[in-house]
């Protein structure tokens, strides 16, 4: 199509929208001002000049933000005849950012009013002025003034320069040119450091450091004098010829010049049909790609429900906008339409074009794609016929629109034409709500009641696939879904198809994690979990492939519970599913007899919060643990209880079994009622919101410790029925004590770890992986009692045990009373000192280990803490 054809307003290629010029700027001499000089540029030289000039802006504010580092250390007493105070340095440094923040919002207004290039020129002037004010300052306030001026320049340049590049650069190079700006910014900072180093030893060198920033500003001023304004702003201001000339300079070797011009002029109502078609086609293409990416994630019906109201609104607004052109369209002769008075101003044509673009985007995202998925809605027996009829309907509608659009525009006006199309969209939206696959909950329940019992398979077969999937997702158990699908093979194929929406719904109803993944991935994972968790596994005697599969599923679910963040007060659906499944198996009951795997012990320990949940844990047996192991009978201290490469998970698990017995079994002589009386939110079985960094030590812990003091002389005496703890000893009030720890990390201070503590619980990991902490220990039942001092450290265990990462070792000492006196005095006095060593299970929610009396090593026992 030639340019003459596009300018012809009487033929079939007449512009759809009237031209809207700016009466304040569109003078006759605007078309000739500076055109000859602008056309002298060649495309390649122009692009490189543009890049280099814009790069200087990046270099300038990169230099001026980085130069202050060298200045502060070399200024000495040159300012106000004194050394800079902390306040001076803070003000000098921060005033640049403050004034950049102030300048940024105003810069956008000025850029629209005066043009992008003039704002950049003004920023250059401010850069130069600020640099000179700093260089010639003799007072602190003068330096602050200069830095503030530079801040105004930085705010202006950083806001407008990327805009200037993006509006001038050709599309094929725009991304690279804007990236070059970022490279110049970082390069300016590097230059600042180099200049600072070169002048650091010179007398008054800091003045050269800050003053040199004026030279690039002057240089950019000279270059910008030969560069044009952006075509977008020129068109907005009414300089149409200059805008075309600028585009010619950029695209003089590109055959698509007029296509790019369309993007600008159509957005400002200077559109020809060809160019409008190009912009619409581009919008259609982009949103078709978006629909391709999201249609399986959002769902067919939801895309329709999201897009069709947008189409309706866009058409209605377009119809209202066209009503302003009624006289122009109907009353004026075709050859004089361009001379008709524009009663609506310059914004109405832009509004029409915007509405058409929005309509096209919504159409491409919804109706332009979803109808081609219609084969999913038809049963297999009539799928070919149904698809053929649907496709015929589509092309028939296209034919009717193509045949009647222009006559309708002439006969009933554009306003009524677009309003009629809007009514069609309204009808389509209503039918989508009534007939699409995902019905409302009351309707679907009624549908279930109508077509159940399942023997009425004939009626169910008449339903579309996605309605059947919605029906299946409302059933309460997996067995019900299975029964529904087993009605016949056709229903099975519809419900259990890999792309079925059923899997995403079922997974979201039962588990915490709902990532943006395809339905077939949800299907595989959901089916595996449903099969494994629905079976009754026994772990007392063996560990074969079935038990290994069960443990792998439990491990995956535990990792989700550990890592997924929930809102405060929200229960974990994954943890609830795991709790229900553990109630049907003996996994938490006791260790295996036939050398269980490391993963078995790791999962057992990771489930410690669940193991102490009385609703799912069965009664423990006396042979669940070995008392000699629990109390370290016959062991000499000094060997780490918690290793790194040879972590004895079985021994730690026996301590967990000890607490299961004494906290959950009411028939035990040492059953501890205090634990049972704790409120639910203080028990470890409740899902809590984790800190963002799971490697951080929790600040609040609640726990229990047991002691047998002193240790008996023989193992037989230790294993006596009444000597499971110290409950039968007169000098101890309770068999088990409850206490609270309040700790905080000390990352910058290595708290001392006394020699006597090292002899009991020596550090074993590298010092770089060690974090120290301090805090207080409080007796839970007696909050008024004097607090005791806590100090210790944690160590990372880098080795993954049982396929689960995140294990940590913790060692700490609790000293009676205040530690204002030295530790040696504590050891020599009457106050008690206890050393603790434990394993923190993954997720940081519980620790299990042993404690030892530092003054009498025969006083020892197990302990457990869980975070609050």
TrEMBL record:
It is found in: Membrane. GO terms for molecular function: myo-inositol:proton symporter activity. Residues 457-506 form the F-box domain. The chain crosses the membrane at residues 45-63, 91-112, 119-138, 144-165, 177-199, 205-227, 276-296, 303-325, 345-365, 418-436. It holds the Pfam family F-box-like. GO terms for biological process: myo-inositol import across plasma membrane. Belongs to the major facilitator superfamily. Sugar transporter (TC 2.A.1.1) family. This is Major facilitator superfamily (MFS) profile domain-containing protein. It comes from Penicillium antarcticum. The lineage of its organism: Eukaryota, Fungi, Dikarya, Ascomycota, Pezizomycotina.
């Amino acid at each position: 199509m030639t340019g003459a054809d596009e300018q012809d307003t009487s033929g079939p290629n007449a512009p759809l929208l009237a031209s809207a010029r700016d009466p304040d700027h569109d003078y006759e001499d605007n078309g000739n001002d500076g055109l000859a000089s602008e056309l002298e540029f060649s495309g390649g030289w122009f692009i490189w000049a543009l890049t280099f000039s814009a790069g200087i802006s990046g270099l300038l504010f990169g230099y001026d933000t980085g130069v202050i580092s060298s200045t502060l250390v070399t200024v000495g007493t040159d300012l106000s005849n004194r050394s800079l105070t902390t306040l001076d340095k803070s003000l000098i440094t921060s005033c640049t950012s403050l004034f950049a923040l102030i300048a940024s919002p105003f810069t956008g207004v000025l850029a629209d009013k005066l043009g992008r290039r003039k704002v950049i020129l003004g920023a250059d002037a401010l850069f130069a002025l600020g640099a000179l004010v700093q260089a010639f300052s003799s007072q602190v306030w003068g330096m602050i003034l200069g830095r503030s001026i530079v801040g105004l320049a930085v705010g202006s340049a950083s806001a407008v320069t990327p805009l200037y590049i993006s509006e001038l650069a050709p599309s094929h190079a725009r991304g690279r040119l804007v990236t070059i700006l970022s490279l110049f910014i970082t390069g300016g900072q590097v230059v600042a450091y180099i200049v600072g180093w070169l002048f650091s030893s010179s007398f008054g060198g800091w003045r050269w450091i800050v003053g040199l920033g004026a030279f690039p500003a002057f240089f950019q001023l000279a270059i910008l004098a030969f560069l044009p304004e952006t075509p977008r702003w020129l068109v907005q201001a009414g300089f149409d010829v200059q805008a075309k000339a600028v585009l010619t300079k950029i695209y003089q070797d590109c055959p698509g010049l007029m296509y790019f011009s369309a993007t600008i002029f159509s957005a400002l109502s200077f559109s020809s049909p060809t160019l409008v078609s190009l912009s619409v086609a581009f919008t259609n293409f982009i949103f078709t790609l978006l629909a391709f990416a999201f249609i399986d994630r959002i769902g067919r019906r939801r895309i329709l429900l999201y897009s069709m109201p947008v189409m309706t609104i866009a058409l209605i607004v377009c119809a209202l906008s066209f009503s302003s052109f009624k006289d122009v369209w109907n009353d004026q002769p075709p050859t004089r339409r361009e001379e008709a008075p524009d009663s609506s101003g310059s914004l109405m044509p832009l509004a029409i074009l915007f509405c058409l673009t929005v309509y096209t985007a919504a159409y491409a995202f919804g109706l332009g794609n979803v109808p081609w998925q219609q084969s999913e809605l038809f049963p297999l027996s009539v799928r070919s016929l149904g698809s053929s009829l649907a496709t015929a309907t589509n092309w028939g509608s296209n034919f009717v629109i193509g045949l009647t659009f222009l006559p309708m525009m002439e006969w009933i006006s554009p306003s009524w034409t677009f309003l009629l199309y809007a009514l069609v969209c309204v009808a389509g939206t209503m039918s989508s709500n009534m007939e699409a696959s995902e019905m409302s909950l009351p309707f679907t329940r009624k549908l279930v009641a109508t077509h159940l019992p399942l023997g009425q398979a004939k009626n169910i077969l008449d339903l579309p696939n996605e309605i059947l999937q919605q029906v299946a997702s409302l059933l309460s158990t997996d067995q019900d879904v299975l029964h529904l699908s087993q009605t016949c093979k056709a229903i099975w194929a519809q419900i259990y198809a890999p792309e079925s929406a059923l899997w995403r719904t079922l997974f979201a109803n039962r588990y915490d994690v709902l990532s943006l993944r395809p339905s077939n991935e949800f299907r595989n994972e959901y089916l595996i979990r449903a099969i494994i968790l629905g079976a009754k596994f026994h772990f007392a005697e063996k560990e074969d492939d079935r038990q290994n599969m069960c443990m792998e599923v439990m491990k995956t679910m535990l990792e989700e519970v550990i890592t997924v963040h929930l809102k405060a007060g929200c229960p974990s659906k994954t943890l609830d599913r795991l709790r229900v499944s553990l109630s049907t198996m003996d996994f938490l009951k006791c260790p295996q007899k036939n050398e269980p795997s490391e993963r078995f012990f790791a999962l057992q320990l990771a489930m410690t919060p669940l193991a102490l949940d009385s609703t799912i844990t069965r009664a423990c047996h006396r042979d669940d643990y070995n008392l000699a192991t629990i109390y370290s009978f016959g062991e000499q201290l000094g060997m780490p209880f918690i290793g790194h490469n040879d972590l004895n998970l079985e021994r730690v698990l026996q301590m967990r079994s000890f607490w299961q017995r004494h906290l959950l079994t009411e028939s035990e002589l040492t059953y501890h009622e205090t634990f049972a009386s704790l409120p639910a939110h203080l028990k470890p079985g409740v899902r809590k919101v984790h800190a963002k960094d799971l490697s951080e030590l929790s600040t609040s812990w609640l726990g229990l410790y047991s002691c047998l003091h002193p240790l008996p002389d023989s193992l037989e005496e230790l294993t006596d029925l009444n000597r499971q703890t110290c409950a039968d000893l007169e000098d101890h009030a309770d068999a088990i004590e409850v206490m609270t720890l309040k700790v905080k990390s000390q990352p910058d201070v290595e708290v001392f770890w006394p020699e006597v503590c090292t002899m009991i619980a020596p550090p074993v990991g590298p010092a770089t992986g060690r974090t120290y902490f301090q805090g207080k220990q409080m007796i839970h039942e007696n909050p008024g009692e004097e607090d005791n001092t806590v100090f210790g450290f944690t160590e990372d265990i880098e080795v993954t045990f049982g396929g689960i990462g995140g294990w940590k070792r913790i060692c700490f000492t609790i000293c009676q009373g205040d530690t204002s006196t030295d530790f040696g005095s504590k050891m020599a006095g009457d106050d008690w000192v206890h050393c603790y060593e434990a394993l923190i299970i993954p997720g940081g929610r519980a620790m299990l280990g042993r404690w030892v009396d530092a003054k009498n090593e025969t006083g020892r026992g197990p302990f457990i803490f869980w975070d609050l």
